[in-house]
Amino acid sequence: MTMSYAYGIARAPSLLLSQGSLSRLTQTNLEMYRLTGQLATGMAILRPSDDAVKAAAISALDSRLERSDQRMSNLIYASDSLDTLDDALGEATDLLNDAKSMALEQVNTGTTAEERANQALVVQSLLDTMERIANRESIVGYIFGGSRPGKQPVEGFHGAYRFVGERGGLTTDMGMLRGVPITLGANNVIGAMSARVEGAVDLDPELRDDTRISDLAGARGLGVTLGSIEANFNGEENFSINLAGADTIGDVIDAIEAAVRAYENENDVTVLGPGGVSIDGRSISIDIPEGELTFEDLPGGITGQDLGLVTRPSAGFDTGRVTTDDLRPSVAWNTAVEALQALDAPLGSIRISNNGSSAVVDLSEAETLADVRALIESTNLGLRVEINEDGTGLNVVSEVAGGRDAGLSIEEVDGTTAEALGIRSMTEATELSVFNDGRGVDIVDGVIDPETGLYDTRRNVDFVITLGDGFEIPIDLRPEDIGTVGDVIEAINQQAADALSAAGRDESELVASLHPTSNGITLTQDGGISGAVVVRSDNNSTAANQIGLLDGEWSDSAGQLVGQDRATARPDNVFAHLIDLRDALSSNDTSGISLAAEKLDEALSRIVENRALVAGYARRVSDESSREEDRQVLDTQMRSNLRDLDYAAAATRYTQLQTQLQAGLQTAAQLSRLSLLDFLG
C-alpha cells in the first residue's frame, strides 16, 4: 500500500518512512546519550574516536602531568631531607664552636689538670651528641648514610666511632641532568674515612678468557662498546662478525675465530694459522701465516677501535702484526691473584694495626682479589678494601675514628706482600706530608750567624745521632730532604757518611734504612761498636720526633734503633678531633689541646662549606618546585581546554535534542496513524 501526499511531497512506501523516522530518532537518542555521558563526567572527549587529534594531545599532557607529579613528590622528599641536613649541620656547627671555645680556654696556663680532666667529661658528652646528629634521619632515611640511607652510618666501635655508610649520596630526579644530592656520604667532615692507604702499585692484571668486557679500558682508554664489525682477507669480499652478545674477552675471541673459520670453509681458503685467535699478555693475538686479515668498523661503529682490531691509519694482521694494542684490563674483584703481573712472588702474610688492635693476615690462600678483601675485612679492625678510581690497584681505608696513636698501619710479616700489593702504609715513596696525622715534618732551616750574616750549619742542625762509642753525627735536614721517606734516609746516610769519613772512620758504621717489616726508619750500627744508638733533638727542632727517631726502640742483638711509625692513617672527621681534645684534656697535654683546637677550626670551615652547599641545593629544589608548579598549571589548563566540557553549550544542546526528539516522536506517531481512508474524499 502506498500513501499520497500533497503537491510537492514525494510519494514513498510506508516502510521506508518508518525506517527513516526510526533512524532519525536513533541518531537523536545516540547524541543525547553521548551528551549525557559528557555532562556526567564533565569531559568533552570520552574516547579517542571522539576527536583523534585532541585525544592524542590529551594523552601527551596526561603523561607529562604524571611525570610532573612524580617530580613534585621527589622535590618534597628532597626538601624534607635537605632541611634535616641543614638543621643537623647547624647543630654540629654549634657543637664544634663550643668544643673549640673550650679548647682555647683550657690552653691557658692557669687551668689545672683536674679542671681539664673534668672538661674531658664534657667533651665525651659532645661526642655522644655528635653521634646522635650523625645518625639523624629524614623522610629518605639516614641523612649521612650516603648511597645506603637505610643503615645507621655511625656506630660505637671499641671505644671509638666507626662510619659504615657509603660514599656518594642519593640524588633526586629534577629532570634531565639536574639531580640534587639529598644525603651525604663518606666524603663529608662528619663521616669521612681515611684517605689512605691508597694503592701505590699498578697491579697490571693480564688479559684472560674470563676477563669481563666491562673491566676493559680498551685500546682507546674509553671502555669497550660491543657491536658488529666486518673483516676481509686479502681485500676480498667483507664478512660480518657479530660481537654484541659477548660478556668476556673469551666470548669475543670465540666469535672472531668462528666467523673466520666459517669464511675459510665457504671460500676454501686458509686464513688462520695453528695459533688461531688467542690472548697474548694484555692483547688479542691473531695468527696469520700468509696474506692479510683486515677489520673494519661499520659506519658510526667503534667496536673494532675499542678492541684494537681497527687502527688509524688502517693496518691489517699479517706476519708483521699479530697482536692488537693493549686492551688495558682493569683490576676487578674476580681478578685472579696469579693474573697480577706486578707480583713476582706468591702472597704471604701482612700485619695490620688499627684502633689499638693488631692482626696478622695470611694471604697465601687467596685466589682472587675478592678473597684478599674478605681476609682483610674479616679481621674486624674496622677496615674497608676498595678498588681505586683508576682501576689499577687496591685502597685500604679505615672506617674507625679513634685516638691519634691508634691509626691504621700495614706492615710486612715475611717477604714483601704488602708492598707488592701497594698497600704497605710506609714505604720509601711515602710522602712526609702525611706523617703525624697530616701535619708533616717541621725542620729548622735558614738560620744565619748573627755576626757573619751567613748560613750557620751549627744553628740549623735538627738532631744529633750518637753512636754507642759516643761519636756524634749532626743531621741538618733541608727542605729538599723532607719530600719522601727515601729523601730523609738518603740525607741521613749522606751526612753520616761525610761525618764518619771526616773523622777517619768507616762510612758503614751507621746506615739508615726503612725496616724491612716494621714501619719505621732504622739506624743500623756496625757490629763492632757496643752500646746503643741515641738520637736527641737540637736547636728546638721537632724533626727527630716527627720522623719517629726520638723515641725509637733499640735492639741490642740486631744493633738497630727502629723508629716509630709516624705514617699511620685515620679518618679526618669531627669524631677524631673531638677524641683528640678529650684525650689531651685527660692527659693534661696543652700541645695536644692546641692541635685539637686547630683541627676543630678546620672542621668548622668544612662544615660551613657543606652547609652552604646544602643551602644551595635547597634553593635549587625550591626554585624547581615553583617552576614545576607553574608547568603543572599550564599543562592542566591546556588539557582542560582540550578535554573539559562547556556546560552551558552542552545544556543548551541537550535541550535542543530533547525538543527535537519530542517533535520526531510526534511526527512519527502522526504518520503511523494515516491510512488510505484518510485520503479518500
Describe the protein:
Mean pLDDT is 88; it is low at 1-9. The longest helix has 55 residues, at 52-106. The chain has 13 helices and 24 strands. The two termini are 18 Å apart. α2 (52-106) runs antiparallel to α12 (590-643) and α3 (113-134) packs antiparallel against α11 (574-586). A hairpin with a 4-residue loop joins β23 and β24. It is an alpha+beta fold. It folds into 5 domains: 14-42 and 645-679; 61-192 and 574-630, Up-down Bundle (f41 fragment of flagellin, N-terminal domain); 213-306, no CATH class; 337-425, no CATH class; 458-562, no CATH class. It has a 4-stranded antiparallel sheet with strand order 20-21-24-23. The protein has a 3-stranded antiparallel sheet with strand order 3-4-16. It has a 3-stranded antiparallel sheet with strand order 8-7-11.
Please mark out the parts with pLDDT under 50 across 5 or more consecutive residues, or reply none.
Answer: 1-9
What is the helix tally? 13
Terminal CA distance reads 18 Å
Tertiary shape: flat
Oligomer: single chain
Number of strands: 24
Average pLDDT for all residues: 88
Total of domains: 5
